[in-house]
Specification:
Order of helices and strands: HHHHHHH
Helix content: over 70%
Strand content: under 5%
Number of strands: 0
Structural class: mainly alpha
């Protein structure tokens, strides 16, 4: 767990100056604004992740595999709905983002497209993140931390590649 946090911190410290350098201060400001605004989508989870952990752990303790299956099936259905809702919100709001945040004309299309891409990523995270939550319920933190470390490294490498290819804000 500490290794995962440490690697995330180091990656953030390395990537931050590169983002500012390659995006310009205005581009980086838009990027931070989009990331901050989309963090509110996490509230659509409505505690489903915590419920998955609680009930999967409880049923696992009772060796009730039918109960585990029912919890995971129900949660997946709800998380797919939450993902679809967040995707629809992204589709509706993305074209309005430059107006809402008073983005300069030079960054209008990139701003809207970046917001939309981030919203789609968040939408996918709802149902796909259930596997990590279930692993945490089974107390398999070794697996989830290994996956988190791998994903952080891949994300950092992809950010560096896309920055060097000149994708700018779309990175």
């Amino acid at each position: 767990n500490w290794l995962s946090l440490f690697i995330g911190l180091v990656i953030s410290l390395v990537i931050l100056p590169l983002l500012v350098e390659n995006l310009s201060k205005g581009g980086y400001g838009i990027w931070v604004l989009i990331m901050s605004a989309t963090k509110y989508f996490a509230m659509l989870d409505l505690g489903i992740g915590s419920s998955i952990k609680r009930y999967v752990s409880m049923y696992d303790g009772k060796n009730d595999y039918q109960g585990i299956s029912e919890v995971l099936s129900s949660a997946l259905s709800l998380l797919v709905v939450m993902g679809l809702i967040s995707a629809m919100i992204g589709v509706v709001i993305a074209p309005k983002i430059p107006t809402i945040f008073k983005v300069p004309d030079t960054d209008l299309s990139a701003c809207s497209l970046t917001f939309f891409i981030v919203c789609i990523g968040i939408s996918l995270r709802f149902p796909l993140g259930m596997a990590e939550t279930a692993l945490n319920a089974f107390q398999r933190y070794d697996i989830t931390n290994s996956i988190d470390i791998f994903c952080e490294i891949v994300k950092a490498v992809l950010i560096l590649i896309f920055l060097k290819l000149g994708f700018g804000l779309l990175t």
